[in-house]
Design a protein that fits this description.
By secondary structure, this protein is mostly helical. It contains eleven helices and no strands. The protein folds into two domains: 2-14 and 129-202, Orthogonal Bundle (Endonuclease Iii, domain 2), CATH 1.10.1670; 23-123, Hypothetical protein, domain 2 (Endonuclease III, domain 1, Orthogonal Bundle), CATH 1.10.340.30. It has helices at 2-10, 23-32, 38-51, 55-60, 63-70, 76-94, 102-105, 113-123, 133-141, 150-160, 166-179.
Length: 206
């Protein structure tokens, strides 16, 4: 597909920008990344994972201690409660291992379909496309989906692209959304795929 090739050429290094040492650390990082930048999450987890880096550690941590570590990520009270509950469930139900199926992952506190898809794709190498705000926005602007919900957009993207490309598509659309196709003022003049954009004419150039 021409669109995919242009995105690949534009962002040859597009990949997961979260720093993690194993699938459990990735799970915690993805939960923390909700409405927060990967850069900020990485700053937080560099210190957090030095002190706590197993499900048992987080299941036993005092909630106020966890909140202090993650406060700068935003929504820290909800995230702390979800992380602690999630880790307790990992210990009690999964012997401290992160499950590897969608049905199991989405039962964990703090884990929705987007987080589960990141885990399936990045941690476990399974074909999955996680739809965050960047992917949702870019998919609509490029005419890849007119879905009203992230689940609808996910289905549309999975129908457009080949399963072996799902992981890369996720990272490419995120990167394009962060670097060029901004929410309020997209940089259309620098866009490598503007001829594919369903909304290009709506954004006058400076």
């Amino acid at each position: 597909m021409e669109l995919l090739e242009k995105l690949r050429n534009t962002y040859p290094d597009a990949t997961c920008e979260l720093e993690y040492g194993n699938d459990f650390e990735l799970l915690i990082s993805v939960i923390l990344s909700a409405q927060c930048t990967d850069k900020r999450v990485n700053i937080v987890t560099r210190e957090l994972f030095k002190a706590y880096n197993t499900p048992s550690d987080f299941a036993d941590i005092d909630i106020s201690v966890l909140e202090r570590y993650i406060k700068s990520c935003g929504l820290y009270k909800n995230k702390a409660a979800n992380i602690k509950a999630c880790c307790k469930e990992l210990v009690e139900k999964y012997n401290g291992q992160v499950p590897q199926t969608m049905d199991e992952l989405i039962t964990l506190p703090g884990v929705g379909r987007k987080t589960a898809n990141v885990m399936l794709s990045v941690a476990f190498g399974k074909p999955a496309i996680a739809v965050d705000t960047h992917v949702f926005r870019v998919a609509h602007r490029l005419g890849l989906s007119d879905g009203k919900t992230p689940n609808d957009v996910e289905k549309d993207l999975c129908a457009v692209f080949e399963p072996q490309d799902y992981r890369q598509v996720h990272f490419l659309l995120i990167r394009h959304g962060r670097d060029c196709c901004h929410s309020r003022k997209p940089d259309c003049g620098e866009c490598a795929v503007k001829e594919h954009c369903a909304q290009y004419a709506a954004y006058p150039s400076d």
